[in-house]
Structure formats: structure tokens, C-alpha cells
Amino acid sequence: MSGAESGVIVIGAGIVGISCALHLQKSGYRVTVIDPRGVAGGASHGNAGLVVTGECVPLSTPEMVKALPKLLLDKNSPLQMDWAYAPKMTGWFYRFLKAGTLRQVEHASASLSALLEKAAAAHYELAGWAGCRGNIARTGWLKLFERDDTYRAARIDFDRMERFGVRCDYMDAAAIQAAQPNLAPVFKHAVNHPDSLQIVNPGEYVKALGSLFMLRGGRLVQAEITGLERKNHLITAALSQTERYEADAFVVAAGAWSKKLSADTGTFVPLDTERGYHIEIDVAAEHTVSEPLFWGEHSVVMSPGGGKLRITSSVEFAGLHKVPDFRKLAAKRDEFQRIHRHPLGKIRAEWLGFRPSVPDSIPVIGRANRADNAFLAFGHGHVGLTLGPVTGRIIADLVAGRTPEIDTAPYSPSRFLK
């Protein structure tokens, strides 16, 4: 579809939607972005701010499948299930278990690697357009382990990463202390991924990209799209409760809210929600870690910056509507203090966000199955911030009829056809 005089609606104003909008603008399209929460109102605001260029191993692996029953039943596990919601996830978990074969893990890792190796350059490109490259720092990402058993279990995934060219620098206790003197000497093992990037304030970063989009003539509508109107293999309008928005093409990039809209295009995607919490604790920059870290035993990420330490939880399966419960993460404050040499301050903020998750961990990027002018861009799970810009470039190519630089077959929505 030619960009000249053509209008595109992008549903979703997170990092994926805004990246799609900017690349579509660059291709000459008139773009409208629609989101009820505005720019960066969802997961793009509250994530850990990591561009994790090496995270190519999917969530479902043979080891995870074996450990899953224990993780779901342990009340102290980093993986929590609301059992009232569990019946709605039966199909998702069935597909998750099927995805945990060695063959499928290799396929998913290769598919993710193809995107991840383009991720850093794609961020620098958009940040350069918006004049905010200073928001991105190459900090690395340190994964820490107190116990031998948790480290040995993690080594399986590190070995997989290295087969796909991911740099893993192994560190013993002395090297950890030398690199992070503000940590208490409790960690025995660590792996650093030096090629990972940090965006200290991801919400402000995405808002800067959104400001560029509007400065270039883009239109932002704050409304909730409840459905898509489809006729003769085309989407004719996006519908809110009160309005009808017409365009020549439509991009569904609504994150965890994309499942129903995808179905309206005639495309089934087994999407569900991984609820993720964060708290922010006051801490002086000279008294905390100098790069983001992952604490293996608790499966939390700690991301420093701006006089705060943002601590993100792992996974809660409870859908989009359950009232948030911050008690579990906040209750670990003493544990977070235990690994720091210096006193941490007060908890200043609490937040809940929704990761859009598909069972095979491969994002959905491609043309809808039964709507020729609709394109899907969601399901990025834990790597949404990382892969937003490269996804935007691919979607713009597909809308324009260009061949993307990456083979998009692994990400196609058609992989879920029965």
C-alpha cells in the first residue's frame, strides 16, 4: 500500500505502537495512534528499562516444564497463579507445555535471536530521531546467584545463549565484589551480559518518541477501541463506544489487550497476561549497584537510576481485571536490604503492568489471517521494550509492501492456525 495520501491507524501507544507509528510516518503514511491511556500508559512505563539483546531463550524449556507444577503450587515461588483464573488459561498452558521441547526451544531461540541482534541499532535509530540517545546507556546486565544449585540450573540457559552468539562473562565472588562493591558479599556466582542496554526512565523515553510522532504531524486519540469492523477481508473501521475511526490500514499493537482485536481480524492468537509488579525504593547513586541486576533466587530485576532502585517482580497469572496485590514484593524489602551494604530508603512507588504473553515466547508480527489491511504487533512478553523499535520497522515494511530485512515467517500469526 503506497504511503501517499494513505491513512493508518495504530491501536496502542506503548513502545511497540509508537515505534510502528514513527516508521510508518517515515514511509509517508498519515498515522493516527489510539490508546485509552495515552503514550506509555501501560507496560512501557513501568518495566525495568532493559534492552536485553541476548535474551533469546524462550520461557518454555524442558527444564521449566519439569519444574512448573512445583512453581505453581509454591506460595513463595516467583510464578504465582490465581486459581480462580486458572480455567481460562487451560489452552495457554497446554500450548506452553507443547512448546517446551528441545526442537521448539531451538526454533524459538533462533527466531528471537534474529530480532534481538537488530534491537540495539533500532533503539539508537529512533532515539537519534527524537534527540534522546542520551537516555540509552550500555551498562550490561548482571545475573547474580547465592547458591550453587540455582546457578547450575541457570547455566543450561546460558549455554543455549552462547550457542546463539550471546556474550556471557562468568564471574566468581571476588569478581562480583570488585565490580559491585555496594553489594554485600553474599553472591557466589554471576554472569554478565555486557552488550545489554539500560533506559533509566523507560516511560519518559517512550513519551519522547511519542512527542516526536506528534511533532511530525501524527495524531493521538485517547480512546478505547472495543472492536474492529471487518467486511470482505478488509478492516473498515476501528470502533470505540461512541466513535468510528476509518483508515486504509490498521495495526493492532495493544499489548495485553490485543486478543479480542486480533480475533476481529479473523486471527486467533493464544494470548494471555503475565502481570508484573514493581516497587521503587529511595537509594543514593553512590550506595547502590552501577548496572541492572537479576537476582536468581528471587527472580527479580533491580534497575538503578535517578536516586531510586526499581525492583520488578516475575510473573503472576491472574488476567487483566484482578485488583493488584503489592504485599508480596514489598514484603521482600528486608531481603533487598540484606544484599546491600548501605541502608535503602523508603518505598516511594508501586505499580502493576501487564505483559502480553504467547506460549512459545515468539512475538506476533505480521499480516492478519483474514484481513488483508490489518497487521498484528504484540505478544513480546518480557522483551517488549527491547523489540519495540525493530518490530515497528518490520510492520512499516509489511504495510508498504516491502520485504523486511528479517524473514518474518517465524512470527506470523498463521502459525496458530489449526
UniProtKB/TrEMBL annotation:
Keywords: Oxidoreductase. Residues 8-398 form the FAD dependent oxidoreductase domain. The gene is thiO. This is D-amino acid dehydrogenase small subunit. It holds the Pfam family DAO. InterPro entries: FAD-dep_OxRdtase (IPR006076), FAD/NAD-bd_sf (IPR036188). One of its GO terms (cellular component) is cytoplasm. It comes from the Bacteria. Its EC number is 1.4.3.19, 1.4.99.6. GO terms for molecular function: glycine oxidase activity. It comes from Bergeriella denitrificans. PANTHER family: GLYCINE OXIDASE (PTHR13847:SF289), SARCOSINE DEHYDROGENASE-RELATED (PTHR13847).
